Amino acid sequence: MIQIKGIAAAGGISIGAAYKMGKEEFIIPKVAISDSDIPVQIQLFEEALIRTRREIIALQKRISADMGQEEAQIFDAHLLVLEDRMLIEEVISRLKKDRLNVAFIFQEVLKKYVSVFSKIEDEYLKERIADINDVGKRILRNILGKETKGLGDLKARVIVVAHDLSPSDTAAMHKRNVAGFVTDIGGKTSHTAIMAKSLEIPAVVGAEEATIRINQGDMLIVDGALGIVIVDPDEETLESYHTAELKLKGVTEKFLSVKDLPAVTVDGNKIEINANIEFPDEVPAVKLHGGEGIGLYRTEFFYMNRKDLPTEEDHYQAYKYVAEEMNPYPVIIRTLDLGGDKFLSQFQLPHEMHPFLGWRAIRFCLARPEIFKLQLRAILRASVHGNLKLMYPMISGIEELRQANKLLEDARSELKAKGMSFDEDLQVGAMIEVPSAAMTADILAQEADFFSIGSNDLIQYSLAVDRANEKVAYLYEPAHPAVLRLIKYIIDSAHKADINVGMCGEMAGEPSLALILLGLGLDEFSMPPQVIPELKFLIRSVSLKEAKGIAEEALGFSTGTQVEEFARAKLREILK
Ligand code: PEP
Ligand code: MG
Asked: Is domain 2-22+150-232 in CATH 3.30.530.20, yes or no?
């Protein structure tokens, strides 16, 4: 039995056999062929292309039914590779010239493509490498007549073990066949980890040597809450985890029993508990888990995995749907936040040394007003269909807020000129996720209708820790005194100016930390939908007075570890 420590990405326990991904190497012999074999080999290649196309379309259909159309669109890029004339013609002409088996030739051409693309300083082309590799493997498998082993085709429930998982891999998972996953790289707030939470799949990321230490078929226990993977557990450990699994089920049921009740503290203070979503079709999950609104709608996912840009009408329809479905509950739409670890190929952005510090979010939108205003007009138009609010990401100071509001004003005028209606009182908030914004929260509060603390970024920027890098994950401490002091300053400044303040980073959904945030006076908590019942249960079990005492004590510690230990002990006491 060995234990691998990683980073807790999505809670829950899963027990099952390891399914290692990405290690599927084919041994391809180099075989000379005769002239008469050439047409046979070409036919083999063409049939493999057709079969691959069929497989991808079937996979798309299933994903579309399981998770929605946008996730299914991820595979459009794969279909494009299949239609790449240059690639196909190169294989056929080399086949004729070199007179070697098509599997060997195809593999060589594939290698050449990947190596050429890797050298180009262009994010769009770089992103295509994963697609080429992915489809290339499928084609090769079909030339060789091997069984498909995609994630969507798994027969038994397994625990996926991979060096890294792309968003498209994660989207292809569904709970039916993937019981859990473990990756070598990635941080707690990386895109993959956030997706795992919304899929409710227990996951451990950044388990550095997982793919080396775990063998295909090994029995695994994934403890997504502690960030631990146990390989080949002994009877006793297995037994205790089976018991813990049952207990967890019981606890989850207890949490679920309060999901439709309001989040009111024991001493009668109502707290807003909202959900974070990436796609409109997550709305049913929000309702199912008792979400009272949407505190963060990450709209950049709308731009992902597609070749064209969404039109104003596309945006409008999506926002209208979410506004209507959630009405009368509030929906906070966050304007485009591209950059960092979220690359959007359509914009063909130049490569940057430090993308998280670079041309990101509101900075990009202010520089590209035509793209920004298109989204703003759509949000304004949709605002008549429900209780919409909007907020800007990555505001670093008052001037950016003013510039964004100026473009919003232009968007309003443009709609008025066309005789289109919108909610004149639409609330406009600023995300506070850059330390300079946190330290000038008193100034920003004069001109923002509300604040939403983006703790994922606020922590990364204030502690200088890349949120997606597992090497420095030990320094990524939400309970660090510096972070708590910044949050306290933001909340106090907002309240002095009489505006509400919420948090939509992962920290808001961590029960022990939420206890401190409650005590600091946070008005609204937004989190992945599945965490809502637990947070409601917690808030209904504690008084605001007690939480204030906890927050005060927490601010007195000098290290994040002390704060964490203290908060966890308090949480245990409260939840018994
Ligand atoms: C955050 O930074 O906390 C946040 C909610 O935004 P994102 O994770 O999309 O950067
Ligand atoms: Mg952010």
From this structure: no
CA distances from 360 to 147, 150, 312, 452 (A): 42, 34, 21, 18
Q: List, for residues 500-548, the tens digit of each pLDDT value.
A: 999 999 999 999 999 999 999 999 999 999 999 999 999 999 999 999 9
Which-ligand-closest: CA of 507?
A: 1
454 lines ligand 1 (CB under 6 A): yes
| Joined tokens for residue 569 | 């002990």
* Nearest ligand 1 atom, CA 340: 10
- Closest ligand 1 atom to residue 337 Cα is 9
**What is the average pLDDT score of the chain?**
89
Q: Which CATH architecture has domain 35-144?
A: Orthogonal Bundle (1.10)
Which of the listed CATH numbers 3.40.250.10, 2.30.30.90, 3.30.390.30, 3.20.20.60 matches domain 255-575? 3.20.20.60
Half-sphere exposure (CA, 13 Å, Cβ side) for 410?
13
From the CA of 313, how far away is ligand 2's center (Å)? 26
Give the sign of the dihedral formed by CA 189, CA 190, CA 194, CA 200: negative
Chain segment 402-435, per-residue pLDDT in tens: 999 999 999 999 999 999 999 999 999 999 999 9
191 as an active site residue: the answer is yes
